[in-house]
Specification:
The complex is a heterodimer of chains A (288) and B (550).
Chain A lengths: L1 H29 L16 H12 L4 H13 L13 H37 L2 H16 L2 H10 L4 H25 L2 H8 L4 H39 L4 H10 L3 H33 L1
Helix pairs in contact in A: 1-11, 4-7, 4-9, 5-7, 6-7, 6-9, 7-9, 8-9, 9-10, 9-11, 10-11
Chain B lengths: L2 H34 L3 E6 L14 H10 L4 E3 L6 E3 L2 E6 L5 E6 L13 H11 L7 H4 L9 E6 L2 E5 L7 H4 L21 E7 L3 E6 L18 E6 L3 H9 L5 E2 L4 H10 L4 E15 L9 H7 L2 H9 L3 H8 L4 E3 L23 H10 L3 E3 L2 E3 L7 E7 L3 H15 L4 E7 L1 H11 L4 E6 L10 H4 L18 H14 L4 H18 L2 E13 L3 E2 L18 E2 L3
Parallel strand pairs in B: 1-10, 16-17, 16-18
Antiparallel strand pairs in B: 2-3, 4-5, 5-7, 6-7, 8-9, 9-10, 11-19, 12-18, 12-19, 13-19, 14-15, 20-21
Helix pairs in contact in B: 9-11, 15-16
The chains are: A mainly alpha (288), B alpha+beta (550).
């Protein structure tokens, strides 16, 4: 059963990734300015050099041809060369991946610690004032654009991961709070409380098993939220990660780089969601 | 005075002398230490350097790295604008402007310890002039078809012969960083004051002092004084400014007037306005015959009287005062007065006169009806000015121009596009009416703008790639530009280019608006800084800068 689920997820993942890459390539190719290079404006360049620059851009004119050739090269480990930075895409991604991974891991960890702490305390305390207060706080952060939070982190000289945490936290808090409040109002939890069971025991024996599959699903979604937030955060905070690279690639219509980043982001998002789904399925399987 | 008192007096005097001598010695010891200072200079590159190969440099970040690490035969002194010897002790250009012979310094080593000789210069020039390289530095030397010939006369003497005369030949070598023919480190073996020590892609670049750098100061002390330069790659100017204020950066090059004023309010001793730079901001109309814009608009744009009237209706003083906070001067023509030799001093500022502009347009058949200007066929004079999105300065300039032109009944729409889209319209689809952009001018010599002024060129922006000049004045400019390029007589070249400037001002294919001032910020901890108008303004003398330890 689980194997079948994993196989279905793997198939959907490969298909989505390939389709995502092709869509990204098509969008970049159709974007205005794709065949233009800022370098053309250098008055030192003679006609032959300007023509050479344009020819280099026109190599990727036929998008299907580009994509097929890209996949062929990617199968052999060659992800192409960035048009804007002139470096192999593989090197660029490998150089910048550690920073983005650290940023995402720290940001997500902070977001979840904050969400679960507030959600648990809201479920435990059952004070309407506290509940309103936490809802207002999370609602406020939900309304603030990611770019503003990134700029505030620069202004206050705090790590970019805190901006990621504050972008993700309102979403995860709302889900976690609703799930926990609902779980704590279940008859078996009320009975356990009436019998005088300790709160940690109630939490880990009676609440967590009920909410775990849904929370895992939210965890998967929170990864894609964090990946999306990493682009403005890295670009505005001047962090040399994959998010900043994606921003630069979009501005420069850097087709090879953008296709690879799209595929990577799609892959990470789908893996996180599929992983959460499979684990949730396993948890539910154990329960039943 | 008793004998004892006299002795005490002598002793006091002796002690006084000893203390004075000690103080003088300490001061003299401390003085060179302060001068040698060392330390690390930190500033930002706004983009990632695309290459460390000095021959392939095409972007500002790579050019900055080349300036700091590359050894050149001759260098344009950014302060005096004069050419000075560097790796070449002396040089001689042939009368026909095709050949240059350099006598090189001996005993110089690359950063990795390999010897420098004439064969390295020959190797560099052969690589640079490879037609497949398509480098802006190499293309600047290419005035005709054919290859470059290099002849190593001795280890310290070389002659380089080009297939056609190259005007201003010696000054072009300011951009040519010499590579080692034999070093296994290739372009990472350098002759400049600093060398690349560490590179974290997208984050920072560390340049360390080149231990083999050949130059010394007037007291015989080895240059550079700095131990290292840390270049953080930071595209966001707000972040750059914030980090400077926090003391995390030591200088900001090419500061915007808005940031300049903000910094000036809090620390006026840290900002520098070196005066008008070579950079200009200009507006031009689409005069391309095959462009997809209505024919009647092409007729307006191709009329010199129309362009002159538009130019006359723009208040350049306001642009300078409001947009640049006074840190800019109304442009007089193609070259800024900052270009001491080549600027045509006979040019006068364009008078601002909406009334005169309207009269000139009426003489052309335009009529004002209900506050709107209409041409003789009844078409309302409406056009769009495109500029690049994200440039607050240009957006504000466009809005002011819009307001100025409204006074003569001309309705302007301001459109901002991201740079690739704008360039595509400008160079490929020609789907635009007017463009507001700037020209960053690094060259002092007009030959650097050859591809802007020749009517057949790709960069003749208002009407590029003409098979034959479409107007008599463009034919005249072509003739003058070619004449100055083929002459080695500086006076004749100046006369020819003076005339080019006059024609450009008369015909206004580019409506020159503003010459921005060269603004920079330098921390109090940096000693020896003397920002200038020529690029790289604040760190042109990096080898003589010191940073006090915090």
């Amino acid at each position: 059963m689980v194997r079948g689920k994993i196989a279905a997820h793997a198939l959907a993942l490969v298909a989505t990734v390939l389709l995502g890459g092709l869509l990204s390539a098509t969008l970049v190719r159709l974007a205005p300015g794709f065949e233009a290079d800022v370098q053309e404006l250098d008055p030192h360049l003679n006609a032959a050099s300007v023509t050479a620059l344009r020819e280099a851009r026109r190599q990727d004119h036929n998008i299907l041809q580009f994509y097929l050739s890209y996949m062929n090269r990617a199968a052999h480990g060659d992800l192409g060369t960035s048009l804007a930075l002139g470096q192999p895409v593989r090197t660029l991604l490998l150089d910048r991946a550690p920073l983005t991974l650290r940023l995402l891991a720290t940001g997500l960890a902070l977001a979840w610690v904050l969400s679960l702490t507030l959600a648990l305390s809201a479920a435990w305390l059952r004070l309407s004032i506290y509940d309103t207060l936490t809802t207002v706080v999370s609602g406020t952060f939900l309304c603030i654009p990611a770019a503003v939070l990134a700029l505030l982190s620069v202004l206050w000289n705090v790590p970019g991961s805190s901006a990621i945490a504050l972008i993700v936290f309102p979403h995860t808090y709302r889900y976690a709070r609703n799930l926990l409040v609902k779980a704590y109002s279940q008859p078996h939890v009320i009975t356990a409380r009436a019998k005088g069971l300790a709160e940690p025991r109630i939490l880990f024996w009676h609440v967590v098993p009920v909410v775990a599959p849904q929370l895992l699903a939210v965890a998967g979604v929170s990864v894609s939220m964090a990946v999306g937030a990493a682009i403005p955060v890295e670009a505005l905070c001047g962090l040399a990660g994959i998010g900043q690279l994606a921003w630069q690639a979009a501005l420069a219509r850097d087709l090879p780089l953008l296709v690879n980043i799209t595929i990577l982001v799609t892959l990470v998002t789908l893996l996180a969601n599929s992983g959460a789904d499979v684990i949730g399925h396993m948890v539910r399987g154990q329960e039943s | 005075m008793t004998r004892h008192e006299k002795r005490v007096g002598e002793m006091a005097s002796a002690w006084g002398k000893a203390i004075a001598v000690t103080v003088i010695c300490l001061v003299s010891l401390l003085k060179p230490a302060a001068a040698q200072g060392g330390g690390e200079l930190r500033f930002c590159l706004r983009t990632e350097p695309k290459t460390f190969d000095p021959l392939k440099v095409e972007d500002d970040a790579s050019a900055a790295v080349r300036y700091l690490t590359g050894g050149v035969l001759v260098r344009v002194n950014r302060q005096t604008q004069e050419l000075e010897p560097e790796l070449a002790q002396s040089w001689k250009t042939s009368k026909d402007g095709r050949q240059i012979t350099f006598r090189l310094r001996s005993g110089i080593l690359f950063s990795d310890g390999t010897n420098f000789s004439a064969s390295d210069v020959a190797y560099t020039m052969q690589l640079l002039m490879d037609p497949a390289l398509h480098s802006p530095t190499g293309d600047a030397f290419r005035s005709g078809a054919g290859n470059v010939e290099t002849k190593v006369i001795s280890p310290t003497q070389i002659s380089i012969t080009f297939s056609a005369p190259v005007a201003g030949l010696d000054r072009l070598f300011d951009q040519v960083a010499i590579l080692s023919e034999r070093s296994p480190k290739k372009e990472m073996a350098v002759l400049g004051p600093f060398m690349v020590a560490d590179y974290k892609p997208g984050a920072s670049l560390l340049l360390n002092r080149n231990p083999n750098y050949w130059k010394t100061d007037e007291q015989g002390r080895k240059l550079p004084y700095l131990d290292s330069i840390r270049l953080d790659i930071q595209p966001n100017r707000d972040v750059e400014m914030l980090r400077f204020k926090r003391g995390e950066l030591d200088l900001i090059n090419s500061l915007d007037s808005e940031y300049f004023d903000k910094l000036s309010a809090t620390s006026p001793q840290q900002v520098h306005d070196a005066g008008p730079s070579l950079d200009s901001e200009q507006l031009w109309f689409n005069e391309v015959a095959k462009s997809p814009i209505p024919g009647y608009k092409k007729n307006w744009f191709r009329s010199a009287n129309f362009r002159q009237a538009i130019s006359e209706a723009i208040n350049r003083e306001d642009l300078s005062r409001i947009v640049f906070h006074g840190h800019a001067q109304p442009a007089l023509g193609p070259f800024s007065p900052a270009n001491k030799f080549w600027f045509n001093s006979k040019l006068r500022p364009q008078a601002y006169s909406p009334d005169a502009a309207l009269k000139a347009l009426q003489a052309e058949g335009f009529r004002m009806k209900n506050g709107a200007l209409k041409d003789k066929d009844g078409n309302e004079v409406v056009f769009s000015i495109i500029t690049n999105a994200g440039s607050k300065i240009r957006e504000r300039m466009a809005v002011l121009i819009q307001d100025d032109l409204q006074k003569i009944g001309v309705h302007v729409n301001v459109v901002t596009l991201d740079f690739p889209s704008l360039i595509e319209r400008m160079t490929q689809s020609y789907d635009y009416e007017a463009i507001l952009l700037g020209l960053t001018n690094v060259d002092l010599d007009p030959n650097g703008e050859m591809n802007v002024w020749l009517s057949s060129s790709e960069n003749h922006q208002w009407n590029p790639q003409q098979k034959a000049p479409e107007t008599s004045w463009e034919a005249e400019i072509d003739r003058l530009m070619r004449a100055q390029a083929s002459s080695s007589d500086a006076k004749k070249r100046k006369e020819a280019f003076d005339r080019v400037q006059e024609i450009a001002v008369e015909q206004e294919p580019f409506i020159f608006l503003i010459n921005k001032n060269a603004l920079s910020a330098v921390s109090k901890t940096v000693h020896g800084a003397a920002p200038v108008i020529l690029w790289p303004q604040a760190f042109w003398n990096a080898e003589r800068l010191t940073v006090a330890t915090k």
